[in-house]
């Protein structure tokens, strides 16, 4: 799963004058399509932007496992139990892959994974808005796979050529697996859509609930909406290609026809494709709510963070027992 | 004993069928319950790498349960998903120790799960599972012998995973040793029915469906001895009765209510 490119925090410092030459070489490299590796010189705002982006992406994979995990032991058949377990495992695996990339970037600051976890628990590190939302029924397990992962595929494939080599390579694998996830989600959705009245009801109810969060998934169109946006910096540094709104349009293009063909509706009577403007017109989600959600004030933010905190504290003795000092004692 | 090569053939002999069916429920329910407990751990393991590894093992184990339920399906016991989700607690044949909750709290809220319990239980489980599988490769019921052979291709990796955890923690801090030790003592008080074969133990041995309880127990002790030195002095208790004969605890009710919640929410549904 994935992160929008919007986050708070202060502006990054400009490049110091004595590094101007290195900076120009760096820009020339990425503009020529070369990949930057961990030991290469990079501007400070590039490094810090990547750390934020990748640690948020990584931690969102891990927090993203939690909503679906709520349904894993409850999945209605053996096959579904196995499928969703494999899927959640993949998400944890993506988290691992990404945190390792982030850890390399953080080395100059003497930070590691422990710091990432601590930043998450202290609220300094944000996780993706969709994972602050509650799940109510089994249909949500399908919805997360189908549309949330569907949205993730759109965002992530947009960065498959990212200028930072380790992230770009991790994304290749992640995107391949996300395609399976979306198929897994779609299979759950199809069974519900073709099922009993109750199944169709929980499916529509789930879509109604997830709709605003799905629109928010890609982040606000511009900094005007929420005050900060790093999307321009990320485009300049060739991390991503498209703007938040372009990604959202691609998502609507791909999924709205599928939603309608299943006989489902979205809770927005104004939504339509404008032939002249060649884009989807839709009612904006409540971006103030979005701001609250990513400040860990969403409907399930506290409970999800609490789960991580319990797991972290509760297993402290295990981490201590595995530490080099303990093993050598 | 001559080989029984198909479900049809097994169904020709009523006593053989009863004994075989009972054993298959034990095998399926053990794997199903232990993998259900594993699925509750998802996302909560001590570190991310372990989460991924544990989940992988859990998926394999649930896959094994499914293979046994399918063998039961072949014996006209009902459809595999119904066998996994619908049977009431008294007809479950898993050993009581495997239904035990992962610790305090629930997987959705305040899961104070105990990694020492996870390590001890899974280590003992996989040790005994290996012994049983090896015995089953010689089973007179060839569909079961074939499955045992297949499962044995991956199961030793599961055992080795948990053995490493056990040894590492047992050679580390005093806190870790104490926690493991106390979970081991608890296990021995409840482990008695794990080593049993239930109502048809005599017939199972007689028909060469699996070797006898004494033989399995001795092989289990040999398997564990290198890791748990004093295993020969242990007397295995049955603090909560015998799951092989239908005795169970409220922890099983919690497991069944959770794992069948969606299944039961619409009985006409295809999921």
Automatic annotation (TrEMBL), chain B:
One GO BP annotation is: phenylacetate catabolic process
Alphabetical list of InterPro entries matching this protein? Aromatic_CoA_ox/epox (IPR052703), Ferritin-like (IPR012347), Ferritin-like_SF (IPR009078), PaaA_PaaC (IPR007814), PaaC (IPR011882)
What GO terms fall under cellular component here? cytosol
State the Pfam families in the record: PaaA_PaaC
Stored SUPFAM superfamilies: Ferritin-like
Output the NCBIfam families linked to this UniProt entry: PA_CoA_Oxy3
Query: PANTHER family given for it?
Result: 1,2-PHENYLACETYL-COA EPOXIDASE, SUBUNIT C (PTHR30458:SF0), PHENYLACETIC ACID DEGRADATION PROTEIN PAA (PTHR30458)
Which protein is depicted?
Phenylacetic acid degradation protein
Query: Which taxonomic lineage is given here?
Result: Bacteria, Bacillati, Bacillota, Bacilli, Bacillales
Q: Which gene carries the instructions for this protein? A: paaC
């Amino acid at each position: 799963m994935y992160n929008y490119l919007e986050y708070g925090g202060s502006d990054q410092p400009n490049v110091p004058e004595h590094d101007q030459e290195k900076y120009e070489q760096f820009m020339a490299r990425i503009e020529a399509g070369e990949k930057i590796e961990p030991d290469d010189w990079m501007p400070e705002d590039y490094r810090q932007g990547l750390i934020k982006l990748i640690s948020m992406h990584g931690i969102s994979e891990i927090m993203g496992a939690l909503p679906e995990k709520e349904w894993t032991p409850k999945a209605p058949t053996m096959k579904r139990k196995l499928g969703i377990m494999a899927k959640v495992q993949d998400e944890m695996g993506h988290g691992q892959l990404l945190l390792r990339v982030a850890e390399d970037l953080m080395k100059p600051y003497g930070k590691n994974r422990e710091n990432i976890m601590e930043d998450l628990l202290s609220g300094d590190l944000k996780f993706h808005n969709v994972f602050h939302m509650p799940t109510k029924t089994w249909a949500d397990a399908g919805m997360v796979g189908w549309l949330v992962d569907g949205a993730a595929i759109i965002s992530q494939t947009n960065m498959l050529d990212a200028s930072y080599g380790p992230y770009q390579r991790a994304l290749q694998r992640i995107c391949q697996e996300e395609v399976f996830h979306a198929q897994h989600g779609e299979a759950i959705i199809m069974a519900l859509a073709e099922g009993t009245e109750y199944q169709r009801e929980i499916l529509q109810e789930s879509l109604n609930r997830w709709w605003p969060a799905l629109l928010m998934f890609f982040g606000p169109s511009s900094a005007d909406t929420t005050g900060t946006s790093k999307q321009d910096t990320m485009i300049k540094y060739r991390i991503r290609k498209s703007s938040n709104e372009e990604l959202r349009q691609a998502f609507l293009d791909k999924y709205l026809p599928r939603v309608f063909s299943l006989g489902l509706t979205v809770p927005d009577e104004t939504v339509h494709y404008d032939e002249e403007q060649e884009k989807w017109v839709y009612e904006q989600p409540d971006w103030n709510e979005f701001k609250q959600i990513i400040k860990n004030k969403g409907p399930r933010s506290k409970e999800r963070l609490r789960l991580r905190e319990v797991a972290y504290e509760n297993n402290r003795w295990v981490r201590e027992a595995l530490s080099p000092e303990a093993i050598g004692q | 004993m001559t080989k029984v090569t198909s479900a049809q053939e097994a169904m020709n002999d009523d006593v053989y069928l009863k004994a075989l069916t009972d054993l298959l429920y034990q095998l399926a329910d053990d794997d199903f319950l232990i993998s259900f407990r594993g699925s509750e751990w998802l996302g909560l393991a001590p570190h991310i790498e372990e989460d991924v590894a544990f989940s992988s093992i859990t998926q394999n184990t649930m896959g094994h349960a499914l293979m046994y339920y399918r063998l039961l399906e072949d014996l006209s016991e009902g459809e595999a998903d119904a066998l996994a989700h619908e049977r009431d607690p008294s007809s479950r044949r898993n050993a009581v120790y495997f239904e035990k909750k992962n610790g305090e709290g629930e997987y959705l809220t305040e899961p104070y799960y105990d990694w020492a319990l996870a390590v001890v239980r899974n280590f003992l489980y996989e040790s005994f599972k290996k012994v049983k599988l090896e015995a089953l490769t010689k089973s007179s019921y060839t569909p079961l012998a074939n499955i045992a052979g297949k499962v044995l291709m991956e199961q030793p990796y599961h055992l080795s995973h948990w053995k490493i955890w056990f040894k590492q923690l047992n050679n580390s801090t005093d806190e870790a040793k104490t926690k493991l030790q106390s979970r081991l003592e608890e296990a021995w008080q409840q482990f008695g029915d794990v080593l049993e074969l239930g109502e048809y133990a005599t017939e199972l041995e007689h028909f060469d469906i699996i070797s006898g309880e004494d033989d399995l127990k001795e092989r289990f002790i040999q398997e564990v001895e290198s890791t748990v030195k004093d295993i020969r002095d242990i007397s295995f208790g049955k603090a909560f009765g015998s799951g092989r004969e239908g005795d169970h605890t409220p922890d099983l009710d919690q497991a069944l209510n959770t794992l069948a919640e969606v299944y039961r929410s619409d009985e006409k549904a295809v999921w």
